[in-house]
């Protein structure tokens, strides 16, 4: 039995940097809070909690302590509130998301209508919308655009959507709006991870996708793998694998969502290697 790990899998740049910053701060400071869950992964949250990192949705909890903004980013008024309350702020917003905030803020101030292609309930989209005073028109797969034809407009993307959805949405918007500036702000980490999973799942007999059950990028990876390899399994932790059931397969592929820590991936590999005599051919 051979194990192969997708070339691109696990933590993306933004998440890795947010987790590293958080641990560094928690080692030095007390009363460290992340504003919302830093990442959608129960094991990673437990690990952070072991350093004394708490999660809160209430900024006031961090008065006298430190508040960490996660990689998804937040609305502008959160920064204003934190400043007013004199809370120590550590901004771990991913630079790619930060760039979207800047674009949206600039064009909004210049009188543009902002369109965001993405999921209106996703924290990243809620954050972006907060940089144009929540006036953005949020477009997803099923949206019907009802915009003012003559208003100059700009469109950006939630970083984790597919290019296919972005292109479809832009076409719809462009049909309704005369002057549209297009900023494709999709992050390549997602596409690279998806392409890697797509490629690997075509070549293996069994595919394991590791990541939070509520992580949308992990669910997407699972869908991609399942299309190519019917024997695909979405797990959060190593304990969910019954190695005796997969021993019969020659090639096992592994990929992991953007919020899956390396140590969780390694536990899965160790379990297969120890119980199933698998050999890891690496990335
Ligand atoms: Fe940043 Fe891309 Fe990750 S936007 S948080 S590096 S998926």
UniProtKB/TrEMBL annotation:
EC number: 1.17.7.4
Catalysed reactions, as listed in the record: dimethylallyl diphosphate + 2 oxidized [2Fe-2S]-[ferredoxin] + H2O = (2E)-4-hydroxy-3-methylbut-2-enyl diphosphate + 2 reduced [2Fe-2S]-[ferredoxin] + 2 H(+); isopentenyl diphosphate + 2 oxidized [2Fe-2S]-[ferredoxin] + H2O = (2E)-4-hydroxy-3-methylbut-2-enyl diphosphate + 2 reduced [2Fe-2S]-[ferredoxin] + 2 H(+)
Species of provenance: Helicovermis profundi
Annotated protein name in UniProt: 4-hydroxy-3-methylbut-2-enyl diphosphate reductase
Family note: Belongs to the IspH family.
Residues that, per the record, bind isopentenyl diphosphate: 40, 72, 122, 215-217, 259
One Gene Ontology biological process: terpenoid biosynthetic process
Job of this protein: Catalyzes the conversion of 1-hydroxy-2-methyl-2-(E)-butenyl 4-diphosphate (HMBPP) into a mixture of isopentenyl diphosphate (IPP) and dimethylallyl diphosphate (DMAPP). Acts in the terminal step of the DOXP/MEP pathway for isoprenoid precursor biosynthesis.
The record's free-text note on cofactor binding: Binds 1 [4Fe-4S] cluster per subunit.
Binding site for [4Fe-4S] cluster: 12, 94, 187
Gene Ontology MF: a single term: 4-hydroxy-3-methylbut-2-enyl diphosphate reductase activity
Pfam families with a match to the protein in the record: LYTB (PF02401)
Binding site for (2E)-4-hydroxy-3-methylbut-2-enyl diphosphate: 40, 72, 122, 159, 215-217, 259
Taxonomy, superkingdom: Bacteria
Keywords from the named record: 4Fe-4S, Iron, Iron-sulfur, Isoprene biosynthesis, Metal-binding, Oxidoreductase
Active-site residues from the entry: 124 (proton donor)
Coiled coil: none
KW Amino-acid biosynthesis (keyword) present: no
Pathway(s) served: Isoprenoid biosynthesis; isopentenyl diphosphate biosynthesis via DXP pathway; isopentenyl diphosphate from 1-deoxy-D-xylulose 5-phosphate: step 6/6; Isoprenoid biosynthesis; dimethylallyl diphosphate biosynthesis; dimethylallyl diphosphate from (2E)-4-hydroxy-3-methylbutenyl diphosphate: step 1/1
Chain residues that bind dimethylallyl diphosphate: 40, 72, 122, 215-217, 259
Cofactors: [4Fe-4S] cluster
């Amino acid at each position: 039995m051979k194990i192969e790990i997708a070339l691109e899998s696990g933590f993306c740049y933004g998440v890795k940097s947010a987790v590293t910053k958080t641990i560094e701060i928690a080692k030095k400071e007390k009363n460290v809070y992340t504003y919302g869950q830093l990442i959608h992964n129960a094991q990673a949250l437990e690990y952070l909690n072991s350093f004394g990192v708490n999660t809160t949705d209430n900024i006031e909890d961090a008065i006298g302590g430190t508040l960490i903004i996660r990689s998804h980013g937040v609305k502008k008024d959160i920064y204003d509130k934190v400043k007013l309350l004199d809370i120590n702020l550590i901004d771990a917003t991913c630079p790619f998301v930060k760039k979207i905030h800047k674009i949206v803020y600039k064009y909004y101030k210049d009188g543009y209508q902002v369109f965001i292609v993405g999921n209106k309930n996703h924290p990243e989209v809620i954050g972006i919308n907060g940089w144009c005073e929540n006036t953005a028109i949020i477009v997803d797969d099923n949206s019907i655009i009802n915009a003012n034809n003559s208003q100059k407009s700009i469109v950006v993307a939630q970083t984790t959507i597919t290019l296919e959805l972005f292109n479809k949405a832009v076409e719809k918007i462009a049909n309704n709006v005369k002057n549209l500036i297009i900023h494709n702000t999709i992050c390549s980490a997602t596409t690279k991870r998806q392409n890697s999973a797509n490629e690997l799942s075509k070549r293996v007999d069994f595919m394991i996708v590791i990541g939070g059950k509520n992580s949308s990028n992990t669910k997407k990876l699972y869908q991609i793998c399942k299309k190519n390899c019917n024997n695909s399994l979405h797990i959060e932790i190593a304990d969910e694998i019954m190695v005796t059931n997969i021993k019969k397969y020659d090639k096992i592929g592994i990929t992991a969502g953007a919020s899956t820590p390396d140590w969780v991936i390694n536990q899965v590999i160790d379990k297969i290697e120890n119980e199933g005599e698998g050999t890891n051919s690496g990335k």
